[in-house]
Automatic annotation (TrEMBL), chain A:
Its EC number is 1.17.1.9. Gene3D superfamilies: 3.40.50.740, ADC-like domains. One of its GO terms (molecular function) is formate dehydrogenase (NAD+) activity. PROSITE patterns: 4FE4S_MOW_BIS_MGD (PS51669), MOLYBDOPTERIN_PROK_1 (PS00551), TAT (PS51318). The gene is fdhA_2. It comes from Neobacillus rhizosphaerae. SMART domains: Molybdop_Fe4S4. Residues 46-102 form the 4Fe-4S Mo/W bis-MGD-type domain. It is an enzyme of class 1 (oxidoreductase). Its main location: other. Keywords: 4Fe-4S, Iron, Iron-sulfur, Metal-binding, Oxidoreductase. The lineage of its organism: Bacteria, Bacillati, Bacillota, Bacilli, Bacillales. Its cofactor is [4Fe-4S] cluster; Mo-bis(molybdopterin guanine dinucleotide). This is Formate dehydrogenase subunit alpha.
UniProtKB/TrEMBL annotation, chain B:
It is found in: Cell envelope. Transmembrane segments: none annotated. The keyword Transmembrane helix does not apply. Its main location: other. This is Formate dehydrogenase, nitrate-inducible, iron-sulfur subunit. It comes from Neobacillus rhizosphaerae.
Length: 190, 275
């Protein structure tokens, strides 16, 4: 038998080393679990905003999960009576409306006869739209037709988008009828 | 722990592909543009960035009529998974829900799982680290295990608008599948539940309208015997031996260090005594 002359300190060191070796080699330290705990759930702490799908006229409800100033996930809104949480393949891509590199972030203007798009600011854009709408309306306004008061213009048409909700559609039709527009359509009716 | 099953009734599927998009959306997978393949099917099979693919199959049925068959194809999450068996790094494991997941940190990209999967649903992806060195990782459907952890259903299931996919308790789902097959036997005489027992049953259970071969599925998939031998016999013995050797070497080293400090020199190897 090998003689072991250990003092107290050496004995403690040896026991400690053995225990540590055992722990690492035999029992195993599960890194997998430790790692899994550090990974945060993708939509944890995200802000959830309900919206309406802008693509077809069905008007499915969608929940938009936003975090760190970007959209991290979109899904069907289970509370929506229209789609009850379900979506089609196109509606499921709604997140790309915001995250896509091809997304336009500034208004583009193409002058009549031009073949180029120019970047314009919103102020110029809205002013120009208002000015030209007024101009066209005033120039084409018909007050009386065949002895009947009509107060209409046939030179302007309006087409509402599917992303509009009831209230927005109401406001849109009020404004358009106020201008005397008769060609008033909405995507949901097509 | 309750085991969960993704129930897929292919006869209710209308081929809208929302499940494919939902998968990419949840898992942040990039788009993979493809060439026209001669049918409405977008991708030939699942890849490292496309974890589920909707199959479009033009099939002539028993009466000589065209059947347009769809199938949501993704990982089956086998009870006895060949991928888990062959993984030399133990990077593939079963979760308490019955799903099979790949740990991306442990995976070394050897590709054994991709070669041994009876359903060919695992693929390797190539990456480059910041020094330009190439490495690979295996990817496949996780059944949204992170979502199940939070009490949510997989992304593909939540978006399915025809109710072709459901997610729930294993036994209930299998029962549902058997019931459904009875209902559709008139229209699809070959209809069957696809829950292959060769791999111990799966956690994606299908109601198929036709024989598995029509969908390109194996009739009776199995875990390769060589994989079982390797994993259940060769590897544990090998590991035990490595463990014992490591213990002996480390132990001897530590003991030597301590003893050599002693000036009166007990040079004999004390390593054997505390093992």
């Amino acid at each position: 038998m090998v003689e072991m002359n250990l003092n107290r300190r050496q004995f403690l060191k040896l026991s400690g080393a053995t225990a540590a070796t055992l722990a690492v080699v035999e029992l195993g330290f599960n890194e997998k679990k430790a790692y899994a705990k550090t990974k945060e759930f993708k939509i944890a702490k995200a802000t959830v905003t309900p919206t309406i799908c802008c693509y077809c006229g069905v008007g499915c409800g969608i929940l938009v999960h936003t975090k760190n100033n970007t959209v991290v996930y979109t899904e069907g809104d289970p509370d929506s009576p229209i789609n009850e949480g379900k979506l089609c393949s196109k509606g499921t891509t709604l997140r790309q409306l915001y995250t896509s590199e091809k997304r336009l972030t500034k208004p583009l203007y193409r002058a009549p006869g031009s073949n180029k798009w120019e970047e314009k600011d919103w102020e110029w854009m809205l002013d120009t739209i208002a000015k030209r709408t007024k101009e066209t309306r005033d120039n084409s306004f018909v007050e009386v037709e065949n002895g009947v008061t009509v107060n209409k213009t046939e030179k302007i048409a309006s087409l509402g988008g599917a992303a509009l909700d009831n209230e927005e559609t109401y406001l849109l039709s009020k404004l358009m009828r106020g201008l005397g527009i008769t060609y008033l359509e909405h995507q949901a009716r097509i | 722990m309750t085991k969960y099953v993704k129930y897929v009734d292919v006869t209710k599927c209308d081929g809208c592909r929302a499940c494919m998009v939902a998968c990419k959306n949840w898992n942040d997978l990039p788009a993979e543009p493809t060439e026209f393949l001669g049918s409405a099917q977008s991708h030939a099979k699942t890849t490292a960035d496309t974890w589920n693919v909707l199959q479009y199959i033009e099939h002539e049925n028993g009466k000589g009529n065209l059947e347009y068959l769809f199938r949501h194809s993704s990982c089956f999450h086998c009870t006895d998974a060949a991928c888990e068996k062959v993984c030399p790094e133990n990077a593939i494991s079963y979760t308490k829900y019955g799903t099979v997941v790949i740990d991306q940190d442990t995976c070394v990209g050897c590709g054994y799982c991709t070669q041994n999967c009876p359903f060919e649903v695992i693929s390797l992806k190539e990456y480059k680290d910041k020094n330009g060195k190439e490495y690979r990782k295996a990817h496949k459907c996780t059944m949204c295990t992170d979502r199940i952890d939070e009490g949510l259903q997989p992304a593909c299931v939540t978006t399915c608008h025809t109710g072709a996919m459901e997610f729930g308790d294993k036994d209930a789902m299998i029962q549902k599948a058997e019931q459904r097959v009875k209902e559709i036997k008139d229209r699809y005489p070959n209809a069957m539940v696809y829950n292959p027992q060769g791999v111990g049953g799966t956690h994606s259970v299908y109601v198929l309208a036709e024989k598995p071969s029509v969908y390109g599925l194996p009739d009776n998939p199995k875990v390769p015997t060589s994989a079982v031998l390797w994993k259940d016999y060769a590897q544990p013995i090998g590991k035990a031996m490595i463990g014992a050797t490591t213990m002996a070497v480390v132990g001897a080293f530590v003991a030597n260090k301590i003893f050599s400090k002693k000036a009166n020199g007990h040079d004999e190897d004390g390593g054997g005594n505390h093992e």
